[in-house]
Each structure stands twice: as structure tokens, then as C-alpha cells.
Amino acid sequence: MTGRVAVAAAAVVITAVGVLVDAPRVVAEPVAPRQDMPCPEDLSGALTQLPDQRTILQCQLQGGERRWRGFSSPYPKSDRWLTYGPAVTLHGEGRPNREVDSGEWIAYPQEPEGQCEARQRAVVAAGVLSPVQTSTSKPDQPMTFQMLPLLFTVELQGNCLWQRVQ
């Protein structure tokens, strides 16, 4: 190989390696729960909201199997919620028919390098809401945080299990 050809070949190899090193990591989207789809034991009892923002499913044990089943109460309330990507907005004690209670919560990412984010607003006076307070976990780490007293709404995002500390 001549010197010029060798330099050109080396440049192509270096460029190709640079492209591979700089390429963004592709992360698969989490699988959205569906009616009658199996759910793991660690999600037993958890509620989730489908993208239509109306349908609530619960991971229930029936006949020896855990599956996502329709949650029949018109007022879903739980100390365990699963989010799987799209934001889910839940209501707290600052509104009628709350879906979550204030207090200490832990968010558990459900995938490697996953992150959980909670954006909260609380009632501070009649007709007045607090500024948004955001809590974000470190990648692949559980996050402990406080759901605000008189919580108006909380927007939960990420592929995460959210659990109230008893």
C-alpha cells in the first residue's frame, strides 16, 4: 500500500469508529400495559393509566396468574402507580376524588438507566396554586420525594413504579 492510500484507509477507519462511538444509544420504548396482558409479581396491586387518559388497569392475581385488568371504581385511588413513558396526571388532596395521597413516595425506574420525574403543584390559597416543583431521579436509581400537602396535580413520567411509603 502506498503512503497516501494507507492514510486514506486509516481516515476511513477512524471516521467509522468515530461514528460508532458518537452514535446515540437506541433505547426501546417500554411496552404499554394492555387489558389481560401478564404483569410481573412486583407490580401486583399497582394501577396504570392508558394513553386515552380514561382507562385504568390494575395488576391483579386471578386464577394463579397476574394480569392487567380493568379497574372498576369510578374513583381510582392507589398507593402504587406504574407509568411507562407518557406522562400521567393524577390528582391529590387539593381536589375532590383524589387519586394519590400526600406524603413520602419512592419512584423505582423499571429499566436500566431509566429516570423518573414528578412535577407537582399544590393549593396554597383559594384559587392559587404553587409553582411547579420538579423531582427527577438519577439514572437507574430510586428516588424518594414528598408528594406535597394539598396536592392539586402531579404529573408522573418515565417507565417507573411509584409507591407511597407506609
How would you characterize the overall build of this protein?
By secondary structure, the chain is mainly beta. It has one domain (30-164). It is built from one helix and ten strands; from the N terminus they run H-E-E-E-E-E-E-E-E-E-E. Strands 1, 2, 3, 4, 5, 6, 7, 8, 9 and 10 form a ten-stranded mixed sheet that branches. A hairpin with a 2-residue loop joins strand 2 (56-62) and strand 3 (65-70). The protein is globular, with a radius of gyration of 22 Å.
What class do helices, strands and sheet pairing give?
Answer: mainly beta
Please trace the helix and strand order, writing H or E for each element: HEEEEEEEEEE
Beta-strand share of residues = 35-45%
Rough outline: globular
Largest sheet, in brief, is: 10 strands, mixed
Number of domains: 1
Distance from N terminus to C terminus (CA atoms, Å) equals 72 Å
* Rounded radius of gyration (Å): 22 Å
Question: Would you identify the regions where 5 or more consecutive residues have pLDDT less than 50?
Answer: 5-26
Tally of helical segments: 1
Strand segment tally: 10
Name the helicity range.
10-25%
Report the mean per-residue pLDDT as an integer: 86
Could you give the topology of this structure?
Layout: H1 3-22, E1 47-49, E2 56-62, E3 65-70, E4 80-91, E5 103-109, E6 117-125, E7 128-129, E8 133-136, E9 143-147, E10 151-164
Parallel strand pairs: 1-4
Antiparallel strand pairs: 1-2, 2-3, 4-10, 5-9, 5-10, 6-7, 6-8, 6-10
